[in-house]
Amino acid sequence: MSADAIIDVRDLHKSYGNLEVLKGISLTARTHDVISLIGASGSGKSTFLRCLNLLEIPTRGEVFVHGKRMPLSDPDPSRGERRVTSERELREIRTHLGMVFQQFNLWSHMTVLQNVIEAPIRVRGMARAEAIERAKDLLDRVGLSAKVDNYPSQLSGGQQQRVAIARTLALDPEIILFDEPTSALDPEMVGEVLAVMRDLASEGRTMMVVTHEMGFAREVSTEVVFLEKGKVGERGAPEQIFGDPQTAACKQFLNKVL
Ligand SMILES: Nc1ncnc2c1ncn2[C@@H]1O[C@H](COP(=O)(O)OP(=O)(O)OP(=O)(O)O)[C@@H](O)[C@H]1O
């Protein structure tokens, strides 16, 4: 593993009962990488992303974050189940991995500002005044300084997703995992969220993005990974994948979506 790898995934497998969803995926994300995961519906993109921070428990394979192995018991061939061996370690490692979900997942009983300051105060023990100052800066960056005292239900989907991004940034994670961040949005709101993500990429944030937005994948990624039926079908620079795909499956997929 190279020294600057933030996430190193080795031979990841995931099954739900008899359904084998991930069939051995290896992938490394280094500082400043923007990796887009693309592929047909059901190819395993979201499952892969959720295995990285153990929101799903991989059946086999390992995930290393900064060289530290995610705390999982060894695969048990008889039962196929693995368990988290240290909740404390998992919590610690997760602070390096931010995640933005399709459905925003904001706390509905908290204002926008409270949503953003909660984790820094609770997880990092940051002083309240400092957390508020930082949160206001972040909300300004995502264009929402006027909404700090609103509740999520008073915001559009695009605005809620921008709050979710600010909330993730508040912990200053080394990599941000985006799980189809624009899929739940009305079309007119997709652009404002992608614009924030483009800004993050241009300032060198390390990101892994499951997306159906091929324009974003093509223009912003440093690497595109095409998943096909739970395996890496093809991977490469965006100009390679979009300009000259090598596999029939990737060509067919791109013909359908472009
Ligand atoms: N909790 C679960 N239990 C059983 N099967 C699941 C579960 N989560 C996902 N699957 C199945 O795993 C497969 C891959 O799903 P996943 O959501 O990872 O695909 P995807 O590539 O992200 O698709 P999409 O682009 O439609 O979101 C699908 O067949 C799905 O039905």
Automatic annotation (TrEMBL):
<dbReference type="GO" id="GO:0005524">
    <property type="term" value="F:ATP binding"/>
</dbReference>
<dbReference type="InterPro" id="IPR030679">
    <property type="entry name" value="ABC_ATPase_HisP-typ"/>
</dbReference>
<dbReference type="Pfam" id="PF00005">
    <property type="entry name" value="ABC_tran"/>
</dbReference>
<keyword id="KW-0067">ATP-binding</keyword>
<comment type="similarity">
    <text>Belongs to the ABC transporter superfamily.</text>
</comment>
<dbReference type="InterPro" id="IPR027417">
    <property type="entry name" value="P-loop_NTPase"/>
</dbReference>
<keyword id="KW-0472">Membrane</keyword>
<dbReference type="InterPro" id="IPR003439">
    <property type="entry name" value="ABC_transporter-like_ATP-bd"/>
</dbReference>
<keyword id="KW-1003">Cell membrane</keyword>
<keyword id="KW-0813">Transport</keyword>
<feature type="domain" description="ABC transporter">
    <location>
        <begin position="7"/>
        <end position="254"/>
    </location>
</feature>
<dbReference type="InterPro" id="IPR017871">
    <property type="entry name" value="ABC_transporter-like_CS"/>
</dbReference>
<keyword id="KW-0547">Nucleotide-binding</keyword>
<dbReference type="InterPro" id="IPR050086">
    <property type="entry name" value="MetN_ABC_transporter-like"/>
</dbReference>
<protein>
    <submittedName>
        <fullName>Amino acid ABC transporter ATP-binding protein</fullName>
    </submittedName>
</protein>
<dbReference type="InterPro" id="IPR003593">
    <property type="entry name" value="AAA+_ATPase"/>
</dbReference>
